[in-house]
Write a structure and sequence with these properties.
single chain; three-stranded antiparallel β-sheet
Length: about 450
C-alpha cells in the first residue's frame, strides 16, 4: 500500500497550453504497481515525443482500485506545475482532414467532428500518430452512457425524463451520422467502414471526455483523459474540503466533473452516485387543449417569457418542463417559482383573472404570477394540481424501483446498468418526496 498526502482537484484553464498545477503538496511512497497493459507503459514516452515538452520522471501511470491512474514518485510542492500539454498534443476539431472539413457544414457538431477524427486515426492503426492514446480509450461495449442501452435496459428508466432525453440524444447522433455519410459519399475509403454503431461509440467517447479548454473549442487532451476517474467524483462529493488526506491506492490527479445530477452523469458519462446531493427532477406540465382559455393562457405565458412547446403525443395542447431540486421544508427553496406561476395561470377560469395576473406583473417586477393569488382557494387549487402531478411521479418511481429487483438477467452489463438505474430513480424519488412534503404543508397552511 502506498500513501498519497494531498490530492489535486482542478478545472482546466482556457489557453492552448494546458498546465496542471497542484493545489497542495503531494507525497507518495513506493512506486505504483507495474502496468499490465503495453499502452500504459508506453503512454508517457509517447506523450513526451508528441508534445515536445519534458515530462517529469516523477510521474508514472499505473493501476489503482479506480482503474488507470496518474501517480507521483516524489514529494510535489503545492502550486508546482507538474505537466504542460501543448496544442499539438490535443485532438481538436481543427485537426480534421481539410478535404473533409469543407464538406461537413453546420450539420455536424464539434463532437461529431472529433468522433470522425478518432475513427480516421483508429483506422490507421499503429501508423497513426495517436495510436498510443486511442489504445487507452474505452473499447466498444465499455461505455454506459444511456445512448448505448438496449430496449430492455431503457425500460428501467421509463419513469424518468432520462428515458426521453436518451431517445432524443440517440436521434441527434443518427442525424449527424447521416449527414456525415452524405457529405463523405465520394470518399469510400472512409465511408466504407463508417458504421452507425462505431460512430455512436466514438461520439460517446468524445462526449464523455472532451473539454472546452482551448480557443479551438472542444478538445481531447491526451493525459487528462486518461486520469478521469468516475469513482473519484463520489469521493469528492462527500467531503466539504477540497484538500483530502487519501490513503491506499489513490491517484495523484482527481478531476471534478462538476455539480451534476445523476441524470446528467448517466446521460453524459455513464455512471451515477448512490446519494447525489445535486440530484434534480424534470417535471413536465401540460395545458389541456380543451381548456376554454387555452389560447389566452398560451399567449400570456409567451408574452412573459414562459414559452411552451406543442404536445403531439397526448391530450395537452402545450407543455412546459421545469427542474425541481431538493425542496427545503421551511421556505420551499428548490421548488421553481416559474412552475408555481404556470400552475396559477393554469388554474384561471376567467379572462379577468388572466388580466389581473398580467397587470400585477407590470406593477411588480414584470414576472408573471410569481406571487400568491389573492384568492386563497385558487392558490390551494393551483398547488394541489402540482401535488397531484408529483404524487403520480412518486408512484411511478416506486413501481419502477420495485420492478428493478424482479428483473434479474445474469450478464454483468445488465446488472451494472440496473444498479445505475436504481441510483437514478432513488435520487429522483428523494427530490419528489421533498417537493410533495412542502406542497402538502403549503396547502394545509393556506386551508387552515
Amino acid at each position: 500500500m502506498w500513501l498519497v498526502g494531498r490530492s489535486t482537484f482542478f478545472s482546466l484553464p482556457r489557453p492552448a497550453v494546458v498546465s496542471i498545477r497542484t493545489l497542495s503538496s503531494i507525497s507518495l511512497s513506493r512506486e505504483p504497481p507495474p502496468c499490465a497493459a503495453f499502452d500504459d507503459a508506453e503512454f508517457l514516452p509517447w506523450l513526451r515525443r508528441k508534445s515536445g515538452v519534458e515530462i517529469s520522471s516523477s510521474l508514472k501511470i499505473g493501476r489503482s482500485e479506480y482503474g488507470r491512474s496518474l501517480f507521483a514518485s516524489r514529494f510535489i510542492e503545492g502550486g508546482e506545475c507538474i505537466l504542460k500539454i501543448p496544442h499539438n498534443a490535443q485532438i481538436t476539431p481543427d485537426k480534421i482532414f481539410p478535404r473533409f472539413n469543407s464538406l461537413l457544414g453546420d450539420n455536424v457538431s464539434d463532437i461529431g467532428r472529433l468522433a470522425l477524427i478518432l475513427l480516421s486515426e483508429e483506422k490507421l492503426g499503429l501508423a497513426s500518430d495517436w495510436a498510443p492514446y486511442i489504445a487507452c480509450l474505452p473499447q466498444m461495449g465499455k461505455l454506459h452512457c444511456t445512448i448505448f442501452w438496449n430496449k430492455q435496459e431503457m425500460e428501467l428508466l421509463r419513469s424518468s425524463s432520462v428515458f426521453h432525453e436518451s431517445v432524443q440524444n440517440r436521434n441527434c447522433i443518427k442525424k449527424e451520422f447521416l449527414a456525415l455519410i452524405s457529405a463523405l459519399k465520394d470518399f469510400t475509403e472512409m465511408t466504407g467502414s463508417l458504421e452507425l454503431e462505431k460512430f455512436m461509440h466514438a461520439y460517446g467517447v468524445v462526449g464523455s471526455r472532451a473539454w472546452d479548454a482551448t480557443k479551438q473549442g472542444l478538445s481531447l487532451i491526451s493525459l487528462i483523459m486518461m486520469v478521469i476517474l468516475k469513482h473519484v467524483y463520489s469521493v469528492m462529493m462527500t467531503k466539504r474540503s477540497q484538500r483530502l488526506l487519501l490513503t491506499g491506492t489513490m491517484p495523484l490527479v482527481l478531476i471534478s466533473y462538476g455539480k451534476f445530477s445523476n441524470a446528467t452523469l448517466l446521460l453524459d458519462f455513464g455512471f451515477t452516485l448512490p446519494y447525489n446531493p445535486y440530484d434534480q427532477v424534470q417535471l413536465c406540465v401540460g395545458l389541456p387543449q380543451y381548456d376554454p382559455l387555452f389560447s389566452n393562457k398560451v399567449e400570456l405565458l409567451h408574452r412573459h417569457n414562459m414559452p411552451t412547446t406543442s404536445d403531439t403525443t397526448g391530450p395537452d395542447g402545450a407543455r412546459s418542463s421545469f427542474t425541481i431540486k431538493a425542496v427545503r421544508s421551511t421556505d420551499g427553496r428548490g421548488f421553481p417559482p416559474p412552475l408555481r406561476a404556470f400552475a396559477r395561470v393554469l388554474s384561471a377560469t376567467t379572462c379577468q383573472e388572466l388580466e389581473n395576473m398580467a397587470a400585477e406583473a407590470v406593477k411588480r417586477d414584470g414576472r408573471l404570477a410569481r406571487f400568491p393569488l389573492g384568492d386563497k382557494n385558487k392558490e390551494v387549487i393551483s398547488h394541489r394540481f402540482l401535488l397531484s402531478k408529483i404524487t403520480d411521479l412518486i408512484e411511478e418511481h416506486i413501481s419502477a424501483i420495485s420492478l428493478l429487483d424482479t428483473k434479474c438477467i445474469g450478464c454483468y452489463q445488465f446488472l451494472h446498468r440496473r444498479k445505475l438505474a436504481k441510483d437514478l430513480l432513488n435520487g429522483e424519488l428523494r427530490i419528489l418526496h421533498s417537493a410533495a412534503s412542502w406542497l402538502t404543508h403549503y396547502c394545509s397552511t393556506l386551508s387552515a
